[in-house]
């Protein structure tokens, strides 16, 4: 008759459930953190420590969070928490970008729906609507960021629209004004005719656009070479609307040009047999094909540098375009496509502008901010640049200048807000010079002294700084920091007076920058030192990238709990041309160095196939809220650290399922330890010196993990750390150590040294793992910590990473156990094969005979290999000659295994099959279990 010994077994007990229920539990944990004021507790505990300051790149306050926000903020939180637990004062102050076109555009949208004209609204009232809009979304986003588990000074964030911030932005711009770097000039800038403002590079995206292409004859008026007389220079352009702005033609000095005589053409061709035109020698065949020319001959070949001095007529000469069009050498002219000549419109292109100004050509104003030609533009006054192509073609046909036309789909700049195509347009703007005061040189030096992660970021931003033009810092909008500048009416020079700048900044700090728009602003700020009648007040606003580029000045420098420069800036890789870029230039221009010591970039989020970015139109959008309401924020946090965020990240439902599986592995590891630590006290702890080798091997592994954790935190390589921790939990613990020691923990006597050693190691393991996991799965780690350390004020998040004793590290032991585990793998493989063949059921029914080399058998001596292999008995033979049919595992040639059955009966308590079962005072148990049962009965 069998006896139920279940009550005598030390089965695990814990209140840490297998089913996480994160969606419901996480808000409760957040409320607890709020009650204990976790953020303030951390600040008080770390006061005086070395600081690690991650400066927050401000998100824009205009909508609910998307997955890009979640990726960015979670990664920041992981880094901040990890450095805090390393023993630093890692203070995180979140911030928001509030000024600029997206908010202004949204408010204007409301006006348009109501049939109102925005320009008729008082600017201060309009700006208040923008401010209220931003404040509302700050409140919404703040709660959503907190729901992700992000710890920071949410009660005192920074915003670019705060009065002190606006004041400091004015001071920073004033510094450029005072040192001579800020100037007013007219240059072509990227312009949105829809939004009626200049755009920064970071506000531009490229998308396919269909353009009308034209091949146009420029009649040669005067030439140094007789070969060029009675010819036309042919240009090709994808922007017909820029033809009214043409003032020159660019050629390549190293290009050979052909004088082509047309001998035959298709009936529908605009080419005329007998005419002569000039194009690059390498492009003759292509131009002839494009123009429908079926017969031609090359009359002459002219080296490009001999084109110097050639002057053409504008195609519309005699129709209001009666000025010379010189041929000018341009190093940007290529023969990749087109004709080898480039039409130069200095008001509509960067290369055009510099080539024209270098040769004294005035930059014409042809297009207004609304995309309409000015009234003084012949032939096209009042027409829209994006609708004028047919009229341009007709005008070219009328004068016989059009050689051919077509369509081209190509990558073209668009506004990332309105999605509308952009133009290059010459406008009066305020610029910060890249050369005055050696700004470019200082920025390049700062890049070299900054740590870039990944390292490729250094070259990327360096190439941008090397080639970038002067920084356009003015915008023709309403919602932003006004440019604190007065211009002298007579001289056109900006007023450089520090006292005036100080008065403006002080007023901005006290009242906000709305005071700039008051009627008395000019007299108030100029004071008695200057006659207000002599000056105009600039009505442009500061571009938002200057706003965010100045955050280091009004956040890092202004707060005692932070420091300048920041330890780290962290954003998406697009910010090499955005926030990293503007912060670098602003700081180098005012302080001579970068405002950061290191810069870390992450990739962007793609669908789970890795093919497309998330977009509503593709129907592949999953919001952070969708995930935390279904699976919990810890799943999102684990997705971030389990991904290689140095590249673009795949995201979708199937990937979330995989992350959920990984989460369950980690949670069950914590649950196993908590369950088997039930009732553990300090009195039970066993000194390391008295532990079996297996436990000392586990402690050795902890020293390796500790070293890796600290290195990965330094390297910001949390992907590698997660992979190692997950592998440790799945392979070293669940599939090895836990599996082996389950018998000792469940069935050994309570005071048995082996059981005490195992429970001591479980306690140590839990303490280390829960802390290492705390920055990753912050809710789950705190939940587990409270089970082990109950108390209202308890939290894992105010603890440091444990200091692992150096003497736990034992390289020889680690090497030995690597060999032992390889032997065990062969045994386990043999048992699996025997189980599949129905030769055994459970592994405890087996008695494997292992054939191995003498040194490997010696290494296993005294380790209790039956327990290690989870069998009832085992025989190791120092004999490499195994019987035929013995099991071998590929790659482990030194080990062979023959699986037999263990002798004896099955113990009803520990389930081992042993010869002595049934020979003791308690029925159906082995000698070990009989002693434990007797001891328990006596204690009762």
Concise account of the structure shown:
With 940 residues, this protein is α/β, with parallel strands linked by helices. The chain is 39% helix and 17% strand.
Q: How many runs of DSSP E, i.e. beta strands?
A: 31
Mean pLDDT, to the nearest integer, reads 93
- The CATH topology label of one domain is Isoleucyl-tRNA Synthetase, domain 2
Q: So, the CATH homologous superfamily of one domain?
A: Valyl/Leucyl/Isoleucyl-tRNA synthetase, editing domain
Oligomer: single chain
Measured by DSSP, the beta-strand proportion falls in 15-25%
Low-confidence segments, given as residue ranges, are none
Shape: elongated
CATH class of one domain: Alpha Beta
Number of helices: 27
Q: What distance lies between the first and last C-alpha atoms, to the nearest angstrom? A: 24 Å
What fraction, in percent, of the residue positions are helical?
A: 25-40%
Assign the structural class, choosing from mainly alpha, mainly beta, alpha/beta, alpha+beta, or little secondary structure.
Answer: alpha/beta
Question: What's the layout of helices and strands?
Answer:
Layout: H1 22-36, H2 38-45, E1 54-55, H3 67-85, E2 95-96, H4 101-113, H5 123-147, E3 158-159, H6 163-178, E4 182-192, E5 197-198, E6 204-222, E7 232-237, E8 248-251, E9 256-265, E10 276-280, H7 284-291, E11 293-303, E12 311-313, E13 324-329, E14 342-344, H8 350-358, H9 389-398, E15 402-415, E16 423-432, H10 439-448, E17 451-453, H11 456-467, E18 471-472, E19 474-475, E20 486-488, H12 498-511, H13 521-526, E21 535-537, E22 541-542, H14 544-549, H15 551-556, E23 568-572, H16 579-591, E24 598-602, E25 605-606, H17 624-630, H18 633-642, E26 649-650, H19 653-676, H20 693-715, H21 718-747, H22 753-773, H23 778-788, H24 811-836, E27 846-852, H25 854-860, H26 865-869, E28 875-877, E29 895-901, E30 905-906, E31 913-914, H27 927-939
């Amino acid at each position: 008759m069998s006896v139920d010994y279940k009550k005598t077994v030390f089965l695990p007990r814990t209140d840490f459930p297998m089913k996480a229920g994160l969606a419901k539990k996480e808000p409760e944990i957040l409320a607890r953190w709020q009650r204990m004021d976790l953020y303030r507790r951390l600040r008080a505990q770390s006061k005086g420590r070395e600081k690690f300051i991650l400066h927050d790149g401000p998100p824009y306050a205009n909508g609910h969070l998307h997955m890009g926000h979640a990726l960015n903020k979670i990664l920041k939180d992981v880094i901040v928490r990890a450095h805090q637990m390393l023993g630093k004062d890692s203070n995180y102050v979140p911030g928001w970008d509030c000024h600029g076109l997206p908010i202004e555009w949204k408010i204007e949208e409301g006006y348009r729906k109501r049939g109102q004209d925005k320009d008729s609204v008082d600017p201060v009232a309009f700006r208040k609507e923008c401010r209220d809009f931003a404040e509302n979304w700050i409140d919404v986003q703040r709660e959503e960021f907190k729901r992700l588990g992000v710890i920071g000074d949410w009660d005192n964030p920074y915003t670019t629209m705060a009065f002190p911030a606006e004041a400091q932005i004015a001071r920073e711009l004033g510094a450029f004004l005072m040192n001579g770097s800020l100037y007013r000039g007219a240059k072509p800038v990227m312009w949105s005719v829809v939004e009626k403002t200049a755009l920064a590079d970071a506000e531009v995206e490229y998308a396919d656009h269909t353009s009308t292409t034209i091949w146009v004859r420029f009649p040669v008026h005067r030439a140094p070479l007789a070969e060029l007389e009675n010819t036309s220079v042919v240009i090709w352009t994808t922007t017909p609307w820029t033809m009214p702005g043409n003032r020159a033609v660019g050629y390549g000095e190293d290009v050979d040009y052909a004088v082509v005589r047309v001998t035959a053409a298709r009936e529908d061709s605009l080419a005329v047999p007998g005419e002569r035109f000039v194009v690059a020698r390498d492009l003759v065949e292509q131009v002839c094909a494009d123009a429908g020319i079926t017969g031609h001959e090359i009359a002459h070949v002219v080296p490009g540098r001999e084109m110097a001095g050639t002057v053409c007529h504008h195609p519309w000469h005699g129709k209001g375009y009666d000025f010379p069009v010189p041929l000018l050498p341009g190093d940007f002219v290529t023969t990749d496509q087109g004709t080898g000549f480039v039409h130069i419109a200095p008001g509509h292109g960067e290369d055009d502008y510099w080539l024209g100004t270098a040769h004294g050509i005035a930059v014409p104003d042809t297009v207004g901010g609304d995309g309409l030609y000015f009234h003084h533009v012949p032939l096209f006054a009042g027409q829209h640049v994006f609708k004028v192509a047919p009229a341009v073609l007709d005008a070219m046909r009328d004068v016989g200048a059009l050689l051919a036309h077509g369509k081209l789909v190509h990558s073209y700049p668009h506004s990332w807000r309105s999605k509308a195509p952009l133009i290059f347009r010459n406008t009066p703007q305020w610029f910060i010079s890249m050369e005055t005061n050696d700004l470019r040189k200082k920025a390049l030096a700062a890049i070299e002294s900054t740590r870039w992660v990944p390292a490729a970021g250094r070259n990327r931003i360096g190439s941008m700084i090397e080639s970038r033009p002067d920084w356009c810092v003015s915008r023709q909008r309403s919602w932003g920091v006004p440019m604190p500048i007065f211009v002298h009416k007579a001289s056109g020079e900006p007023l450089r007076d520090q006292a005036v700048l100080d008065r403006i900044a002080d007023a901005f700090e006290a009242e906000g920058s709305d005071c700039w728009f008051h009627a008395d602003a000019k007299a108030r700020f100029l004071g008695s030192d200057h006659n207000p009648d002599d000056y105009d007040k600039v009505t442009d606003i500061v571009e938002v990238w200057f706003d965010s580029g100045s955050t280091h000045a009004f956040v890092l420098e202004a707060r005692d709990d932070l420091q300048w420069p920041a330890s780290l800036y962290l954003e998406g890789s697009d910010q090499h041309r955005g926030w990293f870029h503007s912060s670098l230039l602003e700081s180098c221009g005012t302080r001579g160095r970068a405002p950061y010591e290191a810069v870390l970039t992450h990739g962007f989020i793609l669908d789970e196939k890795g093919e497309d970015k998330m977009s509503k139109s593709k129907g592949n959008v999953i919001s952070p809220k969708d995930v935390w309401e279904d699976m919990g924020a810890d799943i999102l946090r684990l997705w971030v650290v389990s991904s290689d965020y140095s590249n673009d990240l795949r995201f979708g439902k199937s990937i979330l399922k995989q992350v959920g599986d990984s989460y369950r592995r980690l949670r069950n590891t914590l649950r196993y330890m908590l369950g088997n630590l039930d009732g553990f006290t300090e009195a039970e702890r066993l000194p390391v010196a008295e532990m079996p080798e297996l436990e000392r091997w586990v402690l050795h592994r902890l020293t390796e993990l500790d070293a890796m954790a600290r290195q990965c935190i330094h390297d910001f390589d949390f992907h590698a750390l997660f992979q190692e921790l997950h592998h440790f939990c799945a392979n070293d613990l669940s599939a090895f150590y836990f599996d082996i020691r389950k018998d000792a923990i469940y069935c050994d006597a309570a005071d048995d040294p082996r059981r005490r050693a195992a429970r001591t190691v479980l306690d140590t393991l839990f303490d280390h793992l829960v802390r290492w996991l705390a920055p990753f799965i912050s809710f789950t780690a705190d939940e587990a910590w409270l089970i082990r350390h109950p108390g209202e004020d308890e939290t894992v998040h105010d603890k440091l990473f444990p200091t692992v004793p150096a003497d736990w590290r034992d390289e020889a032991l680690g090497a030995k156990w690597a060999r032992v585990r390889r032997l065990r793998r062969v045994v386990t493989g043999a048992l699996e094969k025997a189980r599949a063949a129905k030769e055994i059921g459970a592994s405890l029914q087996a008695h494997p005979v292992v054939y191995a080399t003498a040194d490997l058998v010696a290494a296993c001596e005294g380790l209790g290999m039956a327990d290690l292999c989870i069998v009832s008995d085992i025989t190791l033979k120092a004999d490499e000659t195994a019987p035929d049919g013995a099991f071998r595992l590929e790659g482990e040639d030194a080990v062979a295994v023959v699986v037999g059955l263990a002798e004896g009966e099955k113990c009803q308590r520990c389930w081992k099959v042993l010869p002595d079962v049934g020979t003791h005072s308690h029925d159906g148990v082995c000698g070990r279990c009989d002693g434990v049962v007797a001891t328990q009965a006596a204690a009762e």
